[in-house]
Amino acid sequence: MERSLEMTRSLVKLNFYGTKGYVEESSPEHSGHSAFTIEAEGFRLLCDFGENRKGLLGKIRPDAIFVSHAHPDHAWGLEEGTAAAVYASEITHSLTGKFGIAKRVVLEPERTVSVGPWRVTAFPVVHSVRCPGIAARLEVAGRVLVYSGDIVSFENPDGALAGADVYVGDGSTLRGTLVRRHPSGTLLGHTTVRAQLGWLAKHGIRRAVFSHFGKEAIEMGEKALREALEKLASERLPGADVSVAGDGATIEV
After folding, report:
1. Distance (Å, whole) CA 59 – CA 82
2. pTM of the entire structure?
3. Domain ranges across the chain
């Protein structure tokens, strides 16, 4: 029984089509804006689809699409339109209203919906005032994955992260903060990979994949980036399995 359960739990695959943020810097491993699929039970859920990924939907053939927020490097690939159902917050649907999206489904905060075999729950995150973001808690076949997209913090970290097996996080900056304060007092930007690893340690999450890399990570080169991430993980989350996602990578979790 234990072996059968483990085999069922292992059948989740991540395919990355873009792993960089909205920066000029680029490399062979990180040239496309954020886009990855998560597959289980024959169902392919595309998570974000950034601006320079236009033209790839025919290749990806998603069964459904989740959009974390309406910034160009996460949503504007959908300007080309899609027949697949798009799941996003009400504000994200409003901001992408001119895109040719045939079926829109509004995700309400902390309300779980079924998307194929997945149970998807949206959790608001701190990132942008103009384009508010949500994270997705994705549950299937005994597995729980959390995708944060761009993030400063979770509004409800315990609800989003408790019991999760895998975290797909924001690699915009490793150690140097990209957080600033809006005139309203709200924080904006991206927290560090170091901080995110601290969240995972607190919640007992032992598997993480980082994507959406920024200037710092791309310019250091892939070997140095992997070494830097390994060092951070050894400091903040010893013994964990932490990976760098690159364009074209397939990772089973």
Report:
1. 13
2. 0.94
3. 12-246
CATH number for the region 12-246 comes to 3.60.15.10
Strands 35-40 and 13-18: antiparallel
Provide the mean pLDDT of the chain.
94
Both ends of the chain: CA-CA distance in Å?
Answer: 20
**Which residues make Cβ contacts (< 8 Å) with residue 211, sequence separation at least 6?**
16, 19, 34, 36, 168, 169, 170, 171, 245
Interval 186-198 mean pLDDT? 95
Asked whether residue 11 carries a pLDDT value surpassing 80, the answer given is no
